[in-house]
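Summary for the steering committee. The consortium agreed at its last meeting that each partner would contribute one worked example illustrating the joint modelling workflow. Our contribution is presented below. We chose a case with several input lines so that the handling of multiple components could be demonstrated. No manual editing was applied between input and output; the record is shown as generated.
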Amino acid sequence: MGIRRVLQRELRRIVHEPRYLVILTAGIVFTFVFFASMTKEGQPKRLPVAVVDMDGSYLSRRICHELDATPGVHVSAVYNNHTEARKAMQRGEIFAFYEIPSGTYNTLLQFRAPHFVLYVNSAYMLAGTLSYKQLATMGMLAGAAVQREVYRKKGYTEEQIMGLIQPVEYDTRTIGNPWINYGNYLMTTLIPAVIAFIAVMHTAYIIARERQKKTLRSWLRKAGGNVLKALIGKLLPYTCWYILLCLTANLIMFGFMGFPMEGSWMLMTVNTILLIVASQCVGAFIACCIPDPPLTMGISAIYSAMSFSLSGFSFPVESMPTFFTSFSWLYPIRHYFLNYSDIAIFGNGFLHCWPRFCALLAFGILPIAGSMMLAWQMRQQQADSTDSTQQRRPQAL
Amino acid sequence: MINTLKDIWMVLSIEVRRVFSDRMVLLIFFLAPLLYPLIFCFIYHNENVENMSVAIVDESPSEDSRRFIYKLNSTPELSVDFRCNTLDEAKRLMRDHKARAIFYFPKDYSSKLASLQTARIVVFSDMSSFYFYKAALTGGNSVLIDEMHTIELQRYEQAGLSPTEASIQMQPVIFENVTSFNPSGGYGSFFLPVLLILVIHQTLFLGICILCGDANENRHAMILIPPHLRTKSVHRVIFGRSLCYLIIYTPLCILDLWFIPRWFGLPQLGNLYTILGFLLPFILAVIFFGMTIGNLMVRQKITPMLCFVFFSVVLFFLTGMVWPQSSMPRFWLFFSYLFPSTPGVQGFVKIASMGGNLEIVRHEYMTLWFQAATYFVTACVVTYWKNNKRHRRSQQIHRQHQRITAMTNR
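What follows is the complete predicted structure of the assembly.
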């Protein structure tokens, strides 16, 4: 059978020149280790914040201490004026600061409300939001502490006090990520996205390399001239390898690292397999259609570079302009991500996922189209070469 | 001196010709820095999640809950699209991705409010994207604070306090929030300045690596360089080439980092001269970094595309814009300073988004000059070593060839 001969040829190649497979695998492992160790703590801890203490009183010092005791932030400096603090914020040394104006303690003693200002640097998305959240909560609690003291003196019960201080509260349940772990949110989509990215590029590369080394013909001859068989035989080892890598990554994330997995493992495995195969289909299509090897790599890079954004795990695709919402369907990782959120977050079954499975399967049309394209190119080339030999023959004569 | 300039000029003109005759390099040098900023600016044009659909389960229909729901609907972030009778129904909507959050008012909501206790609202949020959670949180919190004031005021009046007394009781301390540098908290304003610098970094780096790979594949690229420059005065070659890339990238940088942010309304507080002054060491550092890596590692023209492109994601996280540098593990912090993108992004964001000047970004600026100097030396060493190796090999081949011809002649 044609496929087996191509497969043997490709395996021999891999054994002889394993360089790129090793480099890319190392790249995937590196990326995994990088993100796992970076987001180990779940959320950034000990964010530096500051206090501008213009009051210098007992109260302002106590606020400093309480800020330092707030989880997630630590007071890295106390400044005397606003300009110094602003500059420190511009230098990126602190992410937020409280400004305590002079005369605060006196105001409080006069039973008037002192005025605190909280400045937050939101150019740093995560750090700004988190430090804001912590400092605002601390501010609310500080206010509540003052209120509570007053009510205690007035003889209210604790329950009444809570009712007065906080009449309504939220009980937030974050589905699919109960600890609001950034690593969980990030890695579950980013790692498969990186593997899919590499699968597209590598597939495009190995086909472009046949063109570059002018071994296209000998490759197709092994498959008996059937381009589709030649493609399958050639890509099969890589398919298996990348599926193995992606499944291992998922196993580590959902198994050992304990990221929530509500649904069935089998659906997730199918999802992973389809992601890799669909990505390879895209890579094969690009490489088959574009006759120039460097251009092939350029186009597949341009295509793949947008996959992280258009998967929609960072900024929701639904909130992008309408064109990109439809455009994102051209990316296997988008379907993977939607399936992932169905399976792992909500525990949905096959009934919810099948449209996306079908969409991923539909990427299978691409290599068929690509192989037809390649066959046509080969025929064209043959015709050209016979033309030129026919033209040359009279001259030779 | 004149000789040096002449040599540099010669290398420069050769390099310009090489860049413009290579389709792949043209694609990377010109198309990518023009295309990506535009595409990504369009993608993130809507900075925030707006009118996210929310399901409401109200098990204690009352004036209080209705007022709360009404306020939720009027926030820009949320839109109450579904009113469900049971929690299961709402959860089903969430499972179908129709509702991204659920606000559930339990049976005792109004009775607790009436008996002056703390009433509880349960919020379920879809965590598939942090932005759904953020929208639910921002919209929900603004309503919560507003609603708390309304209820508190009622309660104090019931307790017999005068309105002024009540207002002091309610807010013993007044907190004001000032969100600086990205007031809407938009994703685009945060992400795009980082992306713009990364695009410049990655395209320039890749282009140079590809040119190195090309020189390695095609011998004639080497022959173009005059023999006296191949080993001894290698720094002139490095200078000449970098001048070529610098000339190409200066207009691109002005377009990408000055005009595009203006057209798309991204934060732009820095001035042009500060930005250009800051970018000079950045571009130089990237060029020399590219030459070092390119000469050291790249053997084939298409390898860089295959091996380095996916690395952009890692670089993005190494910049410290997402995961702050203060919380980064020590090792990754040092590792991040191997790449010019880290100080480049940090510095550019501080200038463009936060209105800093060169004094504010002194740390990044000095780091970039230091990187540029270090990578210049490494680029010289690597190029010298490589040319020397090649020179020796060609001499060897030449000698063998002579020996063979001598033998055959004999």
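The first strand of chain A starts at residue 47 and ends at 53. Residues 365-396 of chain A form the longest helix (32 residues).
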